[in-house]
Amino acid sequence: MSMSDGGARPGRERLVVVGGDAAGMSAASQARRLKDPDALEIVAFERGHFTSFSACGIPYWVGGDVAERDQLIARTPEEHRERGIDLRLRTEVTELDVAGKRVRARDVDSGAESWTSYDRLVLATGARPVRPELPGIDAQGVHGVQTLDDGQALLDTLSRARGRRAVVVGAGYIGVEMAEALINRGYEVTVLNRGSEPMSTLDPDMGRLVHAAMEGLGITMVNDATVTKVLTGDDGWVRAVATEDAEYPADVVVLGIGVRPDTALARAAGLPLGAHGGLLTDRAMRVRGHDDIWAGGDCVEVLDLVSGQQRHIALGTHANKHGQVIGTNVGGGYATFPGVVGTAVSKVCDLEIARTGLREKDARRVGLRYEAVIIESTSRAGYYPGASPMTVKMLAERRTGRLLGVQIVGREGAAKRVDVAAVALTAGMTVEQMTALDLGYAPPFSPVWDPVLVAARKAATKVRGF
Amino acid sequence: MSMSDGGARPGRERLVVVGGDAAGMSAASQARRLKDPDALEIVAFERGHFTSFSACGIPYWVGGDVAERDQLIARTPEEHRERGIDLRLRTEVTELDVAGKRVRARDVDSGAESWTSYDRLVLATGARPVRPELPGIDAQGVHGVQTLDDGQALLDTLSRARGRRAVVVGAGYIGVEMAEALINRGYEVTVLNRGSEPMSTLDPDMGRLVHAAMEGLGITMVNDATVTKVLTGDDGWVRAVATEDAEYPADVVVLGIGVRPDTALARAAGLPLGAHGGLLTDRAMRVRGHDDIWAGGDCVEVLDLVSGQQRHIALGTHANKHGQVIGTNVGGGYATFPGVVGTAVSKVCDLEIARTGLREKDARRVGLRYEAVIIESTSRAGYYPGASPMTVKMLAERRTGRLLGVQIVGREGAAKRVDVAAVALTAGMTVEQMTALDLGYAPPFSPVWDPVLVAARKAATKVRGF
């Protein structure tokens, strides 16, 4: 142990947390709840200015639904410190010495470096947005939206952009949410989508509904678009985005292409990574083969309970659960994170989009044969004011009838219905069992057969063959 | 077989359905889907004017949210007849001869009676509203709201009532929904409630929230009120409702005290009835001990999957499921209705109310020890516009941690969250398992921990004891 880390007080252990967002600070907070400072010292390193912020909320801040940046901060650095967590902001961990049980951290502003030893370590280094190596990608006016600093930079650009033309690259969750944000700011929005339909987390037949709805909102959706470069004016500002086929004038460009696990530190230290580049953990969120190191949040891979395979899913709700599990275990309790079923919900203006479980291509990839059905229903009893149409797609395994996945596109009341399928997937229910589910019914909330049950009935009929 | 029934054609069976609403006509329709008229003759008797109507929609028609009575009719008599169902309206079945496999029906208008033989019989005789034997209960202006005729009669009274004072007797689902309807019609509404808090389907601590919200809507809620008589003017119209303690002036009175299975016919025929007066069936919805008789809808008792006991629950969504199961079995297929978990949702203006599973007193009655928790959360991320408060109560069994029940009171987005608990109850999940559920998260739809998960975490902590 070097002098620079101060050394842990005798009789107490030191927990070091790398990354001060959802997973890291949830872990720190939960560990603190279970162990007081005399028993556990907690040091948390965060390279940015903020802790515990809602990255998922950035599109709504940019779009103006959320007025102030600070509303997105669940817990400030001061609040963490008051709870006895030694939080070091603007401090990046640059090296992990597994054998020596220590990390090297660098003060981002001064450049000063020092080693800190740990008894237990939590890696919560998050994810990095994909930023393609394209000519012009670093032009002024081209923005990612991963951090609060990114959001502020984008808002600054919007406040001084010379025109009202926005190009969003990517048509996944971030892309469609940013399209909404920019529409709300009065921009003409073009979305450049590499795939055949937006929302590739849905099957194309459901993505097509999103496409149509986005066009209906005045968003120009360009599918099968391969971006080749960003065109820049003499002033260094973006002026257009070029694809293989065309040029799209742009006063501002938002990149929403997805994220990758940020595991450079772990990789250099020789920790086990999966096929998606994320850290591999056991059920207790302990890094495989390393009893003293836990990992959670956007930097890990998780078990998909439906396919049985590892996936990488960057989502705040998982990160919080991971942190809770890690903090419980580090604090001397016991908790596990069993895995995910792949639930995600989103919206573009009043269009709601939801999915859980496997798409058709996921099922094929893991060798599952399935029946797929699509039904139309409504959010409330058809006669009740505000009843809006909803399309539900459901996949069930052939022969067994086991539910494999659900996708929903609709208006108000559509998205959160996917939760019923998420629980049914977790429980391993068949679609036949689902037809009997005792879901809440009253005319303002549902038709007498809830849309999810209508889909289950159709899927069960198809599985049975009569 | 008497001459009057015409006799079934050789080689085809006759199905007789008693009761032309949700369960009966669902059964008839599904049987018809599976067997064509050459194989199965279907005769359905309905004593009223209508078929397949939404009784649950009546409060919204009375309140003006639904403009026309006919919007509440899912399928008209003509539509049923076009599908090859011999539907006889205004025809009441007055006797069931089980040994002779025939029913006696009376034309309500002419009084003419005749016997009709059956090969298979479906009893879907529904429920009757409780109408206490009180002096004055038959006064003009005192209304039930069970049938479309009831609804029309109430609307007629509203259109000519001399004043704007309404008294609703009963504070369950029908009572609170009728209170909303009458508020919407501009009435001063007083609700007389026998219990200590409204919505006795909730625990009193949750009912208290409904009480407060209803008072906030300008509804006068009188708890612990025992109605003793209805006071009538010289013109035969209601003028007040008296309780043991006070008199409440009324220009119109709505009775919403609950319903009982309408099983007089079955009782006279010696069919098996349960403790709640409902018909007892097996899982296929066949009346116990009677291979050729099925029963479903509001006239049967159902198995409560959480308590393991029989219950009577009058709800259109169950009736439709029963009908579907019966029709499948009668049509030569195979289906079962496993039971209910007791889910119900309702609203009073913008207040949403939901429950599933056991209340504290239900758990005690069946000898289950439990932990109960109550949490406050919001419908969306706290920073997202429209986030509204929500209270969730959760019961879990001691030691096992098995979920026993959930109650929710809140605003927009509160009620249907109970579906997650309904599926978890059906699957026999523990609250610890629930803490890991992969529910849909995005700021417009949920806090990063969904309110149901917040409750599950607190319940799991209490069960574990740390």
From TrEMBL, chains A, B:
GO terms for molecular function: oxidoreductase activity. The keyword Oxidoreductase applies. Gene3D superfamilies: FAD/NAD(P)-binding domain. The keyword Oxidoreductase applies. Its cofactor is FAD. Pfam families: Pyr_redox_2, Pyr_redox_dim. Keywords: FAD, Flavoprotein, Oxidoreductase, Redox-active center. Residues 346-448 form the Pyridine nucleotide-disulphide oxidoreductase dimerisation domain. Residues 14-322 form the FAD/NAD(P)-binding domain. Belongs to the class-III pyridine nucleotide-disulfide oxidoreductase family. This is Flavoprotein oxidoreductase.
